[in-house]
Write a structure and sequence with these properties.
By secondary structure, this protein is mostly beta strands. The protein has strands at residues 9-14, 20-31, 62-63, 69-70, 73-78, 90-95, 102-111, 116-123, 130-136, 142-149. It is globular and about 35 Å long. 33% of the residues are buried.
Length: 155
Amino acid sequence: DFLPIDEGARIFFDLGATAGDVDLDNVRLFEGHVGTATVGAESLGTELVLDGGFDGDAGAAWSGTGFNVTDGVNSVDISGSNPAEPWQSQLAGTVTLVGGQGYTLSFDVSGEAGRTITAGIGESADPYRTHNKEVTLTAETQTVTLHLIAADGGV
């Protein structure tokens, strides 16, 4: 049987690998691997992210140096970058994850074309086991859907 991740869990966006603007909105996380290219507004089960649309009390759900809500969108301009430590500019939200369980993460993102960010799920404490993927941005808003698996004993 899989168990909840004891140290706490998070959804995260590492934004600091390269300089430039990043706009994030409509962040959604569901149990299971659902959807292929996009996840529409239809119900796919219980959403695990609080205020993924950044239009309510986002301060209760999100944190990090990459947290900056403007007009219902998390909009941040990374002026410095550090490819070796992209997590230095991060947006993170608390979620409950079960180790070994699959999840679908969907979000709308735009930014400087060709710029990359890392999106994922994982532990919010040492040893910080995660499952994440690099996303290349475009100037036009794109919906990204990732299928991820929560860490379970280092897997």
